[in-house]
Amino acid sequence: MQAPSPWQTLTAAPHRPMFLAGAVQAVLALSWWLADLLGRYGGLYPPLPTAVPSLWAHGFLMLYGFFPFFIFGFLMTAAPRWVNGEEVPRRHYLPAFLLMAAGTALFYPALLLGRPPMAGAVALLLAGWLTGWNGLRVVVRRSTHPDKRHAYTVIGVVLAGALGAAAYLLWLLSDAYWLLRLAITGGVWLFLLPTFVSVSHRMIPFFSAAILPNHERHRPYWALFTLLGGMALHAVLELADAQAWLWLADLPMAAVAFHLSALWGFRRSFGTDRLLTVVHVGFLWLGIALSLYALQSGLRLAGHYALGTAPLHALTIGYFTSMLLAMASRVTLGHSGRPLAADRATWRLFLAFQAVPLLRIAGDLPLPGAAHFYLAAALVWLVCFIMWGIKNLFLWVSCPAP
């Protein structure tokens, strides 16, 4: 029998093409952003010409053009198992991957051509997004599992993410600023954060109970629903320009996040299994980020403006991206027949990546040479993702699924 081609192997399971596209996008998005920073802050050349302010292009690329590949790759692999359902069929995940990848790739040249081409690129991405979402929805709906709470939660917030991308598309066509605000705020608080928290709530207790001796699988739903409610409240307050009152949502969420870290065995995870440790370290960033948000809000209530976008990057880089690396590494190993153990290279890459949120946070503190921290953070991100992608490329395109 003829061996499968690299393309056949790559597309044999949904996480493989999605993770590969996400790794490529991690490098492309940060390469473009680093080039922009070198023009604006480094003074090496004039700022790059773009059809929209580069900050809003960067926001779209990170919220809607980077994380969704990993989210779909993970959910299309894990969510059917949550409900004992059938696998997401190839006719759903392959078109989703191709459309999303095409839309994201075309977004870069469209930045130079104008808003209508950018809108066309976003429309392609959105078409792939809805195709993938429908594939997940069908699998979960057909399942007869008695508990679909996590599955339906992530399906709901992935649809909310599609609405956020649609809001960005409409902003490109109309220039209505409220649509841009809805896309950016909704992308963080109504899509990415509830997705990552729901996955964490479902998976971290499972991982911990499987490895830590005498550890019970605690999944308190009051904590999950408290966090989801707090995210919705934060989004409403932010859209209402009530930043001084965000602490009402963020402080309780921070307390719940730290409680879950302790409950799920953060301290016990060290010295046991590195693949478990990286998941716990990633989740700890949630409590840190929400604490920074609460602190910033309290300072604004007192009339002081500080921290800039440090809380946002503690959340998006510290929590989202650290958890992404941990979960994607675990899925890649497990579904390529490899032992579920982080080798020395994976462990060192994860530790090195922890410098990225720290450097980016430092860039918003009153320190000399703050712009250099921006550049250093982007550079470390690039190096880590290039090495991580190269390390896993063989597993995506060559290793048969177990």
Structure notes:
This protein is mostly helical and 402 residues long. The chain has two domains: 18-148, no CATH class; 206-402, no CATH class. The protein is 77% helix and 0% strand. It contains 16 helices and no strands. It has helices at 6-10, 15-40, 54-64, 67-82, 90-113, 115-142, 149-174, 177-211, 221-239, 247-263, 266-269, 274-301, 310-334, 344-353, 355-362, 370-397. α3 packs parallel to α8. It is globular. 49% of the residues are buried.
Question: Which helices and strands, and how do they pair?
Answer:
Layout: H1 6-10, H2 15-40, H3 54-64, H4 67-82, H5 90-113, H6 115-142, H7 149-174, H8 177-211, H9 221-239, H10 247-263, H11 266-269, H12 274-301, H13 310-334, H14 344-353, H15 355-362, H16 370-397
Helix pairs in contact: 2-3, 2-4, 2-5, 2-16, 3-8, 4-6, 4-13, 5-6, 6-7, 7-8, 8-9, 8-12, 8-13, 9-10, 10-12, 12-13, 13-15, 14-16, 15-16
